[in-house]
Design brief:
Shape: globular
CATH class: Alpha Beta
Strand content: 15-25%
Mean pLDDT: 89
Helix content: 25-40%
CATH architecture: 3-Layer(aba) Sandwich
CATH superfamily: Vaccinia Virus protein VP39
Distance between the termini: 30 Å
Bound molecules: zinc ion
Largest sheet: 7 strands, mixed
CATH topology: Rossmann fold
Number of domains: 1
Low-confidence stretches: 1-5
Strand order of the largest sheet: 6-5-4-7-8-11-10
Number of strands: 11
Amino acid sequence: MSRQSNGICNVCGSDDVKKLFSNKDYTVSNELFDILTCNNCAFTWTHNPPNSEEIGKYYISEDYISHSDVNDSFRDKIYHFARWFMLNRKCKLVDKYSKAKQGLMIDIGCGTGYFLNAMQQRGWETLGFEPSADARRVAKMNFNIDVLPSNELLNFTKKVDVVTMWHVLEHIHDLSGYLNKIKDMLNESGLFVVAVPNISSYDANLYKSEWAAIDAPRHLWHFNTSSISQLLDKHGFCIEEYYRMPLDAFYVSMLSQKNISHKINWFKVLKDGIIGLMKSITNKDASSSLIYLIRKKGTV
Ligand SMILES: [Zn+2]
């Protein structure tokens, strides 16, 4: 499943597939990638991306700050403020929905370990998986958190109470392998939490091919509530509830504008963010990103 060159939908198997648009990789390569969508189930993906061995070089950029603690520019400051704001919300959601109130939780794609550190302080035993050796080192140095390379996940044998993937699932080549593994390792009453961009959001529809959360080829899959629900169902999961991520509309709008014009119109960032936020209050499916609280089927 590392390539999608045959234009078959991974979720429903349909070949009734069309090209949505091409997305330019402004961050690293300036290459164009076609974004395909399934007419049957709306699952959407980056066509023919670099495979898991080749993709590392598409993450090498000073602009790609997901794993970075650089705090120089105004844009980075906003990112770090948003991360601080969201951290509390994430912790509260996990505590609210997890049936085990303390136990073992793993965060896949944990970056530099901010979330695990916060959960550790709430009494959880934590373990991270992260592909970046630099991020693993920072997590250990700053928070004394154990973080394993991502490729060790498939050999991990312990049972866990909570698995989280914060803006990570869209980067995973082996979707089926990961989802099957998570189902195996999760206790029967366990909680699986996934946050991903929402390609049916207000800002996605506003910016279309320039929507920064397309982020090809790093983002391989582009979910909405319907397609992720079908994907999870296929792997034995169901969604118990989902929540908005209200700040993402501002951040993604800012990045999208930078992509288009290489400068940021802060008035437009504010306007797009506020409209996106208002729309998502009455309709969660308009939210730029969504957090899904997921169980194994039959356990809700
Ligand atoms: Zn489909």
